[in-house]
Amino acid sequence: MKGIHMNRSSMHSSVKRSPVKHSSVRHSTGRTGADRHDPCKHSSGKHLFGLAAFLLSALLLLPACSQTEGNIKADETEFRIVTSFYPMYVFTRNVAGSIPNISIRNMTSPQTGCLHDYQLRPSDLKALENADAFVINGAGMESFLGKVLEQYPGLTMIEASKGIQLLTDKNGEPNPHLWVAISGAMEEVRQIAEQLAAADPQHADAYRANADAYVAKLEALSKTMHEALDPLPDKKIVTFHEAFPYFAKEFGLEIAAVIEREPGTEPGAGELADTIGIIRKLNVKALFVEPQYAPKAAETIANETGATVYSLDPFVTGKDDDPADSYEIVMRRNLDVLKQALAGP
Ligand SMILES: [Zn+2]
């Protein structure tokens, strides 16, 4: 290790002494994979001028050096957006992804799904460390927000559901799954764009222009889906987990029963019997499971009632590198499933 420094100022003991400590730091950071541009890597000079320059640059670079590995980026001019989960990530990419000097990072894994009862991990809080804005769905989806605000009291929150009328369940709890309806997605995209424009005024026009273009695509999608679904005579469905009320309201679907409320909680025998009773009474022909949920209860119900099990995707999971139009792709797939399920005999 020491040999590396031999070509440097071995004859200038006064210069040599202080960089020794620095060089050991340098090598340890090099080991952690910081070999990309490392502002801490600077060579000491051979003259007093060099020493002065070294001290000055060390002083100037001190804040940059103190930033740790795992930061989003150390570029001070960049506007850093972190999103809470997959649908917010996709919407934000459509609003801001094409704008230079903006980074977008999803805090949770794209396979996480809904954040009901999600437990924050240290890596989640770490992801927010240098964020300029945190895009959340709100309406109770991010139940961990208190912890985030405790750690980052000054963090700018971009709340996609802000000001949007919410549906409530029978206990009066707001339903957060706004984005599952296309009209809800459009409203959330507008909110994200407006609030980002307020938080980052220099890109305000770009945020709004991108939102306009994206909303126009979503409007076209909504029109296509209405044309296909509106004429269907029987629109009674049974779903899993309460992700679909906004979607059902938008397209006039009647949710006759919700089988399972949260991931991983199987319905009890009594609840199962009630659901089977409702399906028989209303002659419901289609059960919709979500790809994120185990279809066991649905299969039991289907076997008992003769209803068919289909898969309807509430757009809560995907991949980080999904195409920007992944929401439209999922909704078109849902449309195909609904047409098939509700087409009648
Ligand atoms: Zn959910």
- CATH 4th-level superfamily of the largest domain: Nitrogenase molybdenum iron protein domain
CATH topology of the largest domain: Rossmann fold
Number of domains: 3
Largest sheet: 4 strands, parallel
Helix % is 40-55%
Query: Number of helical segments?
Result: 11
Give the termini distance in whole angstroms: 78 Å
In this entry the ligands are: zinc ion
**Poorly predicted parts:** 1-48, 54-73
- Series of secondary-structure elements, N-terminal to C-terminal: HHEHEHEHEHHEHEHEHEH
Any idea what the radius of gyration is? 27 Å
What is the residue-averaged pLDDT?
81
Main structural class: alpha/beta
Describe, in plain words, how this protein is organized in 3D.
It is a single chain. This protein is α/β, with parallel strands linked by helices and 345 residues long. It folds into 3 domains: 2-31 and 39-65, no CATH class; 79-223, 3-Layer(aba) Sandwich (Rossmann fold); 231-314, Nitrogenase molybdenum iron protein domain (Rossmann fold, 3-Layer(aba) Sandwich), CATH 3.40.50. It is built from 11 helices and 8 strands. A 4-stranded parallel beta sheet has the order 2-1-3-4, with helices on one face. The chain has a 4-stranded parallel beta sheet with strand order 6-5-7-8, with helices on both faces. β7, α10 (296-305) and β8 (308-311) form a beta-alpha-beta unit. α6 runs antiparallel to α7 (204-229). The termini are far apart. Residues 1-48 and 54-73 have low confidence and may be disordered. Residues 114, 116, 177, 241, 243 line the site of zinc ion.
